[in-house]
Amino acid sequence: MNSVSEILDKHELSKQNIVRLLSITDKGEHDYLIRKAYSIKETTIGTNAYLRGLIEFSNQCQKNCLYCGIRSGNHKVTKYSLTDEEIIQVVELAQKNQFTGIVLQSGEIQNADFTKRITGLLIKIKKATNAEFRITLSLGEQSLETYQEWFDAGAQRYLLRIETSSEELYRKIHPDNELHNYKTRLKCLENIQKTGYQTGTGVMIGLPFQTIENLADDLLFIRQMDIDMVGMGPYIEHTDTPLYNHKDLLMPIMDRFNLSIRMIAVLRILMPSINIASTTALQSIVPFGREIGLKAGANVLMPNLTPEKYKSHYLLYENKPCIDEEADECIDCLANKVKMVGEEIAYDDYGDSKHFTKRKASFNP
Ligand code: SAH
Ligand code: SF4
Fold this sequence. Notes:
CATH class: Alpha Beta
Strand order of the largest sheet: 2-3-4-5-6-8-10
Number of helices: 15
Number of domains: 1
Bound molecules: S-adenosyl-L-homocysteine, iron/sulfur cluster
């Protein structure tokens, strides 16, 4: 088997090479991989971190994913939905704090009322921000027409995690019905890209039944799909979900954390100019988790701006950080932590994915 430094000197990584990098157990090798990924980040996209404010505006969800704490089958959850006015207040808070964009995330609802509500909301946000703002949607699977309507109303980016690129594993972590179908999810991702969005996807890392080969395939899937932005993080078990029954299959939480960090590093090496988020799930395991993600090649942070009274009802997984802090406090502590790892928050920059800018130039010469 090749040494890590020999593998990293290669021009092109094979699946076998990726498996070897993800399987690293030696601390020296792990650190070497991280340093290599960071040097690529420094030379291609620099040491700026981009901020997007995350608004988890509703936990109502029609789906029942076996891993997720707000699945429709979990009746312990108190349902909530922010009003448009409450969302606009958060947008204003984000602008006041020099954010150049937000991510609107919620459970998945597919109906005409929801589509219309989001279209109206996008128009209001555009007006409130003089259109000088980037809006990312993370509202799950929708029809091509709905994606188009929201794009036309002003959303520029869309995040839809494939969760795993293995159809077999996808079936194990979702109920077996029409609403949870791998091929439909993949089709939605293709439709998002076709509509013209900066397209984001991602996976959960350390799921029960998941192999290192699955994760290597996930990274190759992301590259083959020509994705612009990625958010991936450790799977964190939630007591009130069916997947919790398989908790004995899970690797220790710190192993899941370090594997997630290596996934970020290998992806940065494979795709030097995409945006990669350092996710909140990393921070829920290690207090400096997101900053460690930045040092491994990530360049986007999504501080949670959901008002405090709702945050505790959006527990996709347990031990979510900062749920009892108001948004302003979170922003201050984040800026300090980013400085401590030698990075700078880029306040006056939309932070568009450079990969997207290049991709757009090639289909719009
Ligand atoms: N409903 C939308 C967006 C909200 S869920 C959707 O599903 O696309 C956002 C992400 O949270 C999911 O894509 C999933 O990857 C992640 N998530 C859910 N449960 C999780 C868990 N137990 N551990 C880690 N991530 C989880
Ligand atoms: Fe709903 Fe998204 Fe959770 Fe699935 S992952 S249950 S779609 S919120």
